[in-house]
Amino acid sequence: MQYHPQDIYIQNDYNANTLWVSHRLLCSALNISEGYLSKSRCEYKKSVSPAHRERQVLPDTGKSWRYAKINNKFYYAYPNIPDKHPAHYRSSLPPADELLSIYSAFLTGGNMPQDGFETRFKAALKEGYKEYLHCYNECTPAQQTNLAKYAAILEASVRWIREQHINTSKYDFFQSLAELVKHHAVPYAPENARVLKSKLQEVIDGVAITDIAKLPRIGNANREQYSEEEVKAWVLQLRDMGANYTNQYIIQKIKDMCMLTCKPAPSNRWIGYIMQQHNVKYLTAQQRFGSDSRFGSIYRGHQRFANALFAGDCWQVDGTRINIIAHKQTSNSDDGKKLVQQKFLYIVTVRDVHSGDILGYHYSVTEDRWAVHSAVKMAAKNAGYLPYEIIFDKFPGHNSEEGNTFLKDLEHWGVIVTMSSDANVKPAQERFYGTLQTVFMQESMLYYGQGIRSRRNYAHRSKEWVERMYKEANKLGFDFGDACAEATRILEAYRYTAYSKWSRKHAAVHYSPVELHDISEKPNVRTLEAQDYWYLFGLKKQLPIKHQGLIETEIAKVTYRYRCTDYNIISNYSHVLVCYDYEDLSQIMIYEPGDAVIKRYLGRVMEEKEAMRYGPDAQWSLIAEREAKIKELDGYREQELEYRKAVGAEDITALLHPMMISKKNYEQTESQYLLNQAQQNETYSDGEDIHVDIRNGY
To answer: How many other C-beta atoms lie within 10 A of the C-beta of residue 235?
Structure first.
């Protein structure tokens, strides 16, 4: 520690003497930056009452870094220098009495106290070594710290020798230094006084401290006895194979190859050193572990994406198995026997990316195209719109006729359809399933734990617990309906729980997923009308219209009849495209048949139940109402026929019955008829004659 005049200042402060240390001495001794002390002064000044902030010596508020401005220099009160972990600033300085004694000796030109070097030695081990850390970046963290401490005590010793003008021909100082090194157990530093003297003498003679304080045997080429590039290539080839050989197998294989090719075999340590190099891991991890393994994930490219700005910007569709115990499912075998099987419940969910709300879901025991169709159908019904983009994985049946038709219909309605089996395309959907397991399934008595690949210590419930769950479930007859009810309870708990109650990342979001979806703007969605919803998600059939608007079909071996009362549809279409929904068979939607991509909507048709005409419950009023409607349609048909027959009726009568009208009227009618025929069937230019054979008209 180099002292300058006016580094220490004593002032009587409220009937007590306060020791003040200069700004320069603190920066030099503690390696503190100017910016840190400037910021500390501002923080301390805020703790002082505004009435006393303009004083040269600020009053003591108990806060750290009390300061004063004396002779245009900053001084800091010794008692207010902080001593908290990890810096320990005050402990890095000598005690107040010792510091004052050392400074007094410096001013008078006398000798410093004998224990001054031990204080400097301790300061080098506690803080001074940090100046040398950057010189050992290539070492391990432990080696880096220990070598930096060795270098720091070498520097402190050389400075002390120069400051105190110690005679290096004597061993008194070196013997004391050796005892300190031994007492504090400084790694890499010699504990022999003679060796310490030779090291310090080299530094005094101009050798760099980092050339003295270095790893033992550094630069020794003994371990590089073996250097065979072909053998290194063999290691890379075996390491790069997808077979994922063990390290021991690779070592044995390398030795076998060396024996076959008459090469000297390397040691196990040498081969292990090659395999553990970062460059080797970087080059081979992708092939060794596979593209989807978590062990090679650190070496794969990755980028983060911002969340969707609005609800409806994107929906993500994915399926997974619900992590609750299997339920019993009863079915009949081909020979008619009753089978009871244990089945796990699967769910397909449709998640809005912006809000995280689950807009639609469907349960089944397998994941197929119908489950995906039903989940998207529920989402569209609940939301009342179609999103800007919807992302599917390659679900079973996505390339079937029904799957392709469904996806193309979505595209025709303006939805961007993305198909990808990569989990990185929809990471939020994958994390959602993890949230269900770690947060909302924990309270379920039927939850058995996370997937088999999870290595968390809380991932799986004990074997005894799961066995007890199965026993209880069997007693209660746990079936598919019970499994669906439990899964729905878990899912709805997630939907209606505010993010701030379970998420640290979203601790400031006090809305649930449902609330976020409802309050969010939806500028990019495709509004879905009722007829569009039925066309997209309903089942389709082309059926004839007969018996004055009757449409009849068989659904699940049950005959349904619907009555169309629109005369324009009945009179113009012999067949219509019918869309119906299993959940509501009381009505159907009919569309214009044909090859158009988007069919023209014709109308809604209601079911017509059979009317009872026998017994006391005969529905005569209903029968009469329907008969009246049929007669009304018959009347429309007769009116249209009469109207269309009336056009040109008088002309046809005159030509067919000439004896019933006057000769003048007959000639006028004949002339008008011939003129009309010429205009319809002949193409002529001005000046050409019109040649018409009257016989062609009969």
So the answer is: 22
